[in-house]
Amino acid sequence: MQIHLNLKDHWPLYLSFLIPALFMTSYFASRGMAPFGNSSLLTVDMGQQYIDFFAFFRNTLLHQPGNFFYSFGKALGGETTSLWAYYLMSPFNLCLLPFYKGGLSSGVLLITVLKYGCAGLSLAWVLDRLNLQHSWRLPTLATAYSMCGWTIANQLNLMWLDALILLPLVVFGLEQLVVNQRYLPYIGWLAAIFIINYYMAYMISLFTLLYLIFSIIWHRLNRRQVFRATLRYLSSSILAVGLASFILIPTYLALQLSKTSYTLAPIKWKFDYFPPKMLGKFFPGSFNFAQMPKGQPNLFVGAVVIILVIAFFLESSVKWPVKLAAGLITAILGLSVCYTPLNLLWHAGQFPIWYPYRFSFIVCFWLVWLSAIAWPKQIALKWRTIIVTLLLLIAVTTYCYVNLRQVNFLTVGQLLTGFIIMLIALICFTPWPGHYLWLRPFILILTIADLGTNAVLSLNKISYVPQRQFAVYTDTLDTASQTTKKTDAGFYRIGSTFQRTKDDPLQGDYAGGSHFGSTLERKTIGFYDLTGNPDGDGFVTYANGTQFMDALLNFKYFWSVNETPLPGHKSTADDLPALTMKPDLHRYTAITQLPQTTTYRNPNALGIGFMAAGTTQKLKDIMRDPMTNQNQLWDALLGQQPTSQLFQAVNFDQVSFHNTNSLTNITGSTLTKRNLKRPATMTLTFTPPTDDAYYLSLGANLQKENVRITLNDRPLAQFDTFRNTVLVNLANRQKGQPQTITFHLKKPALWLQNVTLYHLPQRSFAAGISKLQQHPLTVTSWGTTHVSGTVTATAQQPILMTSIPAQPGWRIMVDGHSIRPFTVADEFMAIKLTPGHHKIQFRYQTPGLWLGIGLSVASLLVVEFVPRFQRWQKKYHHVTG
């Protein structure tokens, strides 16, 4: 954008940036958001996901560039190009580099206010360049656009806000394409949004189809001009996608393993809700926490814009063909935010998990755009427009008031506030002579008050993570990570009994076993599901590993919270949220004690690769319950008969019931309250006869919504949500100590799904682990995209088993020769070796990367040389003619 630093000529552009940026900065400061106080902008996914990605971004750029392609901090390991393409490609993220990890929340605030400002600046610049509006009207419309309801509701989804900035620029490019036959602005801006966020780019691309039709009619193109404009549009769109291919191609291939591998939602020809309900969204403060997971579209754009949109269709200054085209597009967009098939189309065939109607920023832009076209030079509107608008205002307000229970995001106070602001705005547009000069600043001030009221009312309903809580945890995690790396520079994974988010490994820069992200590979989710760890759509958490899983997955170290922090440390154990209880740590070795944490070494860890029996090759899938699957893995690795089970089901010593029916068999039965008004419990008791490990399986029905579980009268530390059976470590080295598990019913009945006690014989386990540790892969060098080492294969153990997920892109070299791996348990890479000593190399190359780079380079050459050829051709014809 060509903006000269001339305050006299360009003050509207400066104000268009400064008003939203300074207003939001002032609001955040008043709420004590870091760096202004002890609160932060971290809430919901921003606090549970994105902030860790920002730490990952910072670490990649400053220390480990290979993380752009692959990271072992993503669950058990996975490609990261698609993660960057969705979350981290915004150039604004460069502002995070000067901030330390605990201060990244301050960086988030800086980026947030910059994006608010740049969204306003972007729209104002486009309106100015296209001569649609000028002077004080630019900051008025810019404020309405930048601080619209969609932005307020989605500011925590920081990676989406770039779309708000680039959408006006894409439309500007499309206008240049249609009217002036200029290719580059449209190609450049559309390519930029595809590079920054392909998801938002998809939505903007759909809108460009609609806008092309509008632009053609608006500018009254003839048939020949329409044909040429359409060809320019199609070819330019293809070139824009081509320029972004270096990241789009790898991302597309990666998504085949993750998000797009899920079945597309079936089309249901119905409305998502009663459409008039969305009218409540045009009143200030029409957003709350309940609207995040499932609500109506956030369409608030302020009173001035709504009045001018109505004027667009009623005033005679706009030609009827343009009104008709705009009306059809408005109808399509209106249906899209309430009619299921269209809603599904805008979301690429998959309904979003939380944050519904993510494309509604396009609706907000469209409304502001129409208002800019309709706003007459003399400010005043015709009386018929004023009267129609007033009647609509009364009707909508009355409807919302009568149906206030159905629009629970509104209150009577909000309705009254919106009604009064709209009424004042209407008065400003009435055709009364002699009062227009003073209205110029007043309409701007009214818009700031209107949009500001919506922002304050909406954001005041959301709670945020305290800055101290985030900073202390981040510092503790980083200290534990760095200390462990100094102790052991090898290649291993680290688990912990505490967790702030599932992306702690990306925040702390270590190989862990948890991840939350929309690009998580589906097979990894399936493996967690089938081995007893919590999983969900887009997340896995290594909270319920048995000793065998700890060994198999190379969890060489574990961090545990010190119940009493060392003297002199200001923090408390409460600063580290408990993830799970793990009595198995009694059998691991404590090696390092920090003020808040103790690091344990797992002597059973099998390394990233080890030699296993030939029967491993036959175990392609696991499809049963977690303990059966772990027994299968164990037997296959050791070459044992399937009848020899490592984990064995055992009975409880005693069962007692209080205010429920009595049961003979526990698992699979249903507990029912006798007296619905009194507490009801079932208590299971067992006393370990040995110092071995004991585990309890819990089916998905036994979540916190249905039951509260205590162990020895203390809450059972367990990850809250799990949709499949999980395994809880109950005891280890606790011989003769009674263990009492109590189920407290929260509902009239409770299905005891998969409630079984298991015993792990320590001697059998130790003998098997000793055998598997005989011939490990000795790692000589490793990085984010490669692992090299040596190993000795034998006739009894010909399979090199790894805990590296089997994903496209890995190439394995054995003694300098390429070898194709096979997959074990539908998750891990393994190869068959001949007896003897071998040099092994694993190298990862992002699938589709070179193809994408090639297409991007080719597209760049076309963009660079075709216009030159056209200019030469015109000059040649001029000379020869």
Give an account of the 3D structure.
The protein is built from 25 helices and 29 strands. The model has no long low-confidence stretch (mean pLDDT 93). It is of the alpha+beta class and 881 residues long. The chain folds into five domains: 12-156 and 262-459, no CATH class; 160-260 and 848-881; 467-607, no CATH class; 648-760, Galactose-binding domain-like (Jelly Rolls, Sandwich), CATH 2.60.120.260; 777-844.
Keywords:
single chain; 881 residues; alpha+beta; five-stranded antiparallel β-sheet; 25 helices; globular
State the helix count.
25
| Structural classification | alpha+beta
Give the termini separation: 38 Å
| Physical arrangement of strands within the biggest beta sheet | 12-14-19-16-17
Main beta sheet: strand number and arrangement?
5 strands, antiparallel
How many structural domains? Answer: 5
C-alpha geometry: globular
Radius of gyration: 31 Å
Helix content: 40-55%
Estimate what percentage of residues fall within beta strands.
Answer: 5-15%
Determine the mean pLDDT.
93
Total beta strands: 29
Low-confidence stretches: none
Transmembrane segments: 12-30, 83-100, 107-127, 156-174, 186-213, 233-255, 299-318, 324-345, 357-375, 381-402, 409-432, 848-866
Pfam family, one: YfhO
Protein name: Membrane protein
Organism: Furfurilactobacillus curtus
